[in-house]
Amino acid sequence: MQDPEVVQEFLVESYENLARLDQELVELEKRPRDAELLAGIFRTFHTIKGTCGFLGFSTLEAIAHQAEELLGQLREGRLALSAELTSLILETVDATRRILAAIERTGEEGAERFEALLERLRHAASGAGAAPPPPAQAPPSADEAEEAFARSSVADATIRVGVGLLDKLMDLVGELVLARNQILQYTNEREDAALNATSQRLNLITTELQEGVMKTRMQPIGTVWNKLPRVVRDMAVALGKQISLEMDGAETELDRTIIEAIKDPLVHLVRNACDHGIEPPEARLKAGKPAQGRLSLRAYHEGGQVNIEIADDGAGIDPARIRRAAVERGLLRPDQADKLSDREALNLIFAPGFSTASAVTNVSGRGVGMDVVKSHVERIGGVVDIASRAGEGTTVKLKIPLTLAIIPGLVIHSGGERFVIPQVSLLELIRLEADAAHGQIENVHGTPVYRRRGTLLPIAYLNEVLALESKAAGEAVYIVVLQAEDRQFGLVVDGIHDTQEIVVKPLGKQLKGLNVYAGATIMGDGHIALILDVLGIGQRSGVVSEAREQARGASEKKVQAGEERQRLLLFRAGSFERLAVPLSLVARLEEFPRGSIEKAGGRFVVQYRDQILPLVPLAEALESGLGSELPDPVPVIVFRDGDRSVGLVVEQILDIAEEEIAIRRQTERRGLLGSAVVGKRVTDFVDLNYLLALPEAGWFDGGGARRPQRILLAEPSSFVRALLRAELEMAGYRVVEAARCEEALGWLERLPVQLVVAAQELPPGGVGGLAAAMSKHPEWRAVPVVALTSTADADGGGIDGVVAWHSKFDRAAMLASIGRLAAAVSANESAPAGAPAGR
Amino acid sequence: MSEERLGHGGAAGGQFATFFVGNLFFGVDVLRVQEVLRAQQMTRVPLAPAVIEGLINLRGQIVTAIDMRRRLGLPPRAPGETPMNMVVRTEDGAVSLLVDEIGDVLDVEAAAYERPPQNLDPEVRELIRGVYKLKDRLLLVLDTDRTVELAARRE
Fold this sequence. Notes:
The complex is a heterodimer. By secondary structure, chain A is α+β, with helices and mostly antiparallel strands. The termini of chain A are far apart. Chain B contains four helices and eleven strands; from the N terminus they run αβββββαββββαββα. Chain B is globular. Chain A binds chain B through residues 171, 174-175, 178, 415, 417, 466-468, 505-514, 516-517, 520, 522, 526-530, and chain B through 41, 43-49, 52, 55-57, 59-64, 66, 92-93, 95, 148, 151-152, 155.
């Protein structure tokens, strides 16, 4: 049952302790009142007792326990040490040694129970003073002691060596490697067979020596993990939970000192996951999860670091609860708490003095908080991160650096400098011929991208990231495709050399602030090369951003293209080679002679069908000040809504395409929604809503509210939602979307909404459920609700709070109705302020 | 803090390894000096603070080199003049100070010690623990910890 490795450790430690005990006892005979010596001996037996209890060696535990009792009496001065007592203790030591030997041979304690010895120990400890006469069998003979001495045991197979010495050896081996490399370089230039053979031999031996010394310091993380199944089992029993533990990557090797340092944080995190993460079986069943919770540990190398993930499938952490708790504990002001992203809020649990556990359990609520975990990990230069999804579980990720490790790395050069990229981050290498490179790296609003098997790979140029000289144009381009966390990007370098095993050395603290380097290494020629931190490079160049947790305001603008087929109008304007709008929104395509375009009131207009059509030059709207010369005739895309029209001036209409679109990359650039691959080329999507809101469009001049009103669109189908959203936005409203009732209520809480448009079948309770929930809230009661039905006849029957019913497919009627309601709301709202409200 | 620093190798006098940067004459407690080297092969560190000249390989140890002229806000060395490395021990391992020229090791008396003059250029003054008045010139005692530490904070 016991782990052989643990037993082995126990044996080594116990033999060492016993060897010391022999000495100490002899010493004690000379100085029977030496409290320190007594305490030391007491401690040794205490340790043996404790470990035996853990490993289930009951005989030895009993003996150690009795010896400890006796020594306790001696320590407290209730007994005086006599020669008989010393012999008795020495006998105990010998018995201990015999049991240890048995354990070493067979893994069991053996049949001998040592009852006589135990009895004598008990007797002595009870204060009877002198030990009773020795038992019938022969006292421990000198032979036996010698025999024990001569026997080869595990204790002899291992040696304890100071880590300092290993460090020294490591440095020396590093030096040797350098000298070896220089000799190899030298002999390669000579034609001396004997020298060559010798240096080859030197080469091999050095490599082996290097590996050997390296290994002395590395330990698999499994040595720590081995203790965890027991921890989890005990926790599960104590808490009345069912927890299975999965471990992956136990063979991942880490530097010994690092293993030591993460031991406690790891155990703490596991206990935490069992205690606070995984729910009791009843709660899990209720949530539709299997009764047995799953806790998984994963360790793997990534980017010159070791990642350790502790993931549970428990209740997860509710960021809102964290925010509340942080405010209650006075860590944050309410407004500060509101501003935190969910991820930032989660990381609050690492703040000192923070614990959300509503009940302090006896298992993990011991005042050792997550802040201690964080500080332990940071002390060795690691990082802790936490991700959680309410209801789905929590993952804590430790990133531990390999301050002393050999990793394979790719040597590259850029701007005349040599760098090393950790091989683990490397996905593939791409070489583009000089002429091909120009066309294959495309520009999406200023960000270079490479189309790699149909997906867009953002590109960063290393010489730009590091502000190095750029190399002459007209040479082949090398793209190193890298993985940084869950993102990929291409790094353009000037040249690629070979891969090498490199020794990672830390940088001085003067350079610690630079996140683009993971360390440095010494190359074969004795020169230093910097090791790139792939994630840092990605972040610095902007290709890996924190896009996942953008501000709430941005999510309002989120593109809802989904994976839908749409007909697109493709065109070109300014420096944007390929732009698109949904064709369904376009009224007409026109061409006007350049001379017919007039300027009125600072805006471009053209006379069109007896009306004045305002024109928005797209190139200028997207990149102000960069208006280019217009072609003649001028191509214009006309958008119309009711009696309002606006023309978008482009440079060339390219094509109409029907494509399945998924916006691949969102953008922060105003006027664009994002980009996608259309017809195998990167295409930017124009944000019409933004363009129509520009003053030159004159879209909102005539009627409607000056400040666009916000409509909450609650509709379960993302496709219908996207359609309606486009319609509503064209009509000049701002739209927030919800797929379910709770989501809709969430929006109402966060933002003022003037009108709600909800599908009849809105889950879970239909539009009626939403209306009922809204009527309970004093501020929402007045917000009109328009219900949409899927059937052609727009009559769903009376529901309180719903002011109008429309078919989803009769959009004109729907928009007209919304327009009337919005105008009424707007008149109500702005009348007191005296703002112009009506037409 | 500064009182404590003054006590350490400051007012008591002692042996100083000396060097020149521009027209300034500096001394470092000789026990803090690990070694003195000629110009070494330097590896640039792109994006690093300007005072960091680069990295040198000191028998397998990677050592950060700090250019003392830039650190003190002095004009750069004339082209063709190669700096010397004065490798000093700090709490964070060895750091190399790039200086113009290495001077002798001097024995100085505590009596000649004075606090840094107020009118010293502030960029120099913040790195100086004190001054020894020698017969023909002033010896500025360099605070190596601060020299190295500020380089870190400057980014």
